[in-house]
């Protein structure tokens, strides 16, 4: 099983290194590795099986692979890539659909439907409840200035505030370990936005 994952990882990482645009300051290959680490940690705490962990980790590899081709709706493209590639690694149609369900669960606004989808959704946005919130958030701001036309810090902080107000973690692990700091960040952003005229 570890061998299969390593083969898929080598394949996808090669694509990401070759084809991801250089100005994806947030969604670069480092983000995929961060989410992989988070997903494994959350998955262990949520007591998933080895088989489920394999599917989870494969889904993480593909969850932003669509950025190699498009920015908006990259999740759909990531699913297409997974459907094209994974039979060659011995995955069944049913397993590939589970993987695609997880990829789609990372689409904003998130609406995960089962435990594996909860885990990947939370892993993708775990930074909201960590000490890296401001550092990582700034990379997202730099990226969406280019891709989504967000121009000012004011505009960005209002987006952040609305996002933090509506975001919910789905796993017990993140509710317990990430919600408290996420609330701190929410109050910090609220203060910044309240200071605007």
Can you walk me through this structure?
69% of the residues lie in helices and 0% in strands. The chain has a single domain (2-194), classed as Hypothetical protein af1432 (Orthogonal Bundle), CATH 1.10.3210. Helix 3 (50-63) crosses helix 5. With 197 residues, the chain is mostly helical. It has helices at residues 2-19, 29-45, 50-63, 74-85, 93-105, 115-124, 133-147, 153-166, 172-177, 179-194. The protein is globular, with a radius of gyration of 17 Å. It starts with a helix and ends with a helix.
Q: What's the layout of helices and strands?
A:
Blueprint lengths: L1 H18 L9 H17 L4 H14 L10 H12 L7 H13 L9 H10 L8 H15 L5 H14 L5 H6 L1 H16 L3
Helix pairs in contact: 1-3, 2-3, 2-6, 3-5, 3-6, 4-5, 5-6, 8-10
Gross morphology is globular
Instruction: Count every beta strand, where a strand is a DSSP E run of 2 or more residues.
Output: 0
Characterize the main sheet: none
| Distance separating the two termini | 57 Å
CATH domain class: Mainly Alpha
Under the CATH scheme, the architecture is Orthogonal Bundle
As a percent range, the share of strand residues is: under 5%
Number of helices: 10
Unreliable runs: none
Q: What number of domains?
A: 1
- As for the CATH topology, it is Hypothetical protein af1432
Rg from Cα: 17 Å
